[in-house]
Amino acid sequence: MKQKVVIVTGAAKGIGREIALSYGKRHYKVVVVDIDREEGEAVTKKINANGGQAIYINTDVAVPEQIKELFQKIKENFGQLHILINNAGVSKWVSPYELSVDDWDEIININLRSVFLCSREAARMMKDGGGGSIVNISSTRALMSEPNSEAYAASKGGILALTHALAASLSIDNIKVNAISPGWIETGDYQELREIDHKQHFSARVGKPSDIANACLYITAEENDFITGANLVIDGGMTKKMIYEE
Predict the structure, then answer these.
(1) On the CB side of 227, how many CA atoms lie within 13 Å of its CA?
(2) Residue 244: per-residue pLDDT
(3) pLDDT by residue (tens digit) across 23-73?
(4) Which residues pair with 72 in a beta bridge?
């Protein structure tokens, strides 16, 4: 594993941060990608301080030219790539009557277009190296919704469709492509959650970033190469819960 290179986009905070740290602990070479330089460098420093190997590359995944530059830098630094975790994303809750075209485009470009562009550039490197694994972080909001989430839901639903399309197209090059759809993953103070927050889940608890990081490690492990085109829902059972108002 010491020779394996993994890219994590949106790695400065939350789920992405935990994913990057988890691969770092297992001696992968981690490329920390985020627009937030201060937090991104902090994650990189922590990985390196704990005996891992990581570099930070400041990138706005909404800008196609910066994505190309990102992968050129990876090629220059490592010469190879094995795993891509497409995690970067933004959300905005706005009534569909008020959602602007600019807001729509921003969410789609960051959440969905970047997944395609990063995957394409990663696949070019993986193909030359004999294969690899791509994981796209979607959401249970691709499957069910609350009001005023149209752009976010569309972007996450698009990720699921893109995932199985890429799995089909890239299979010839031994590249596996899967999605993970998190439910409620608490990235703030877990201790501030209420008992009712936990009990409404079949799992009897709210999710943690480590739940998603562990799933990424599982899906991208070499011995699990029979998994491709899949969407792994990690939500404590919430999308399977039948709810009636009383």
Answers:
(1) 19
(2) 84
(3) 999 999 999 999 999 999 999 999 999 999 999 999 999 999 999 999 999
(4) none
Q: Is 152 a catalytic residue?
A: yes
> Which of 63, 28, 68, 24 has its CA nearest to residue 47?
24
Give residues with Cβ within 8 angstroms of 113, minimum separation 6: 62, 64
**CA triple 227-223-131, angle to 5 deg:** 70
Cα 175 to Cα 225: distance, rounded to the nearest angstrom: 9
pLDDT tens digits for range 111-122: 999 999 999 999
CA neighbours closer than 13 Å in the CB half-sphere of residue 38: 0
Distances (CA, A) of 13 to 17, 50, 223: 5, 18, 29
Over the stretch 26-38, which tens digit does the pLDDT of each residue have? Answer: 999 999 999 999 9
pLDDT digits (tens, 9 = 90+) for 192-205: 999 999 999 999 99
Candidate list 23, 28, 56, 152, residue with the active-site label: 152
The pTM score is 0.96
Residues forming a β-bridge with 232: 180
**Two structure tokens written together for 162:** 């893109």
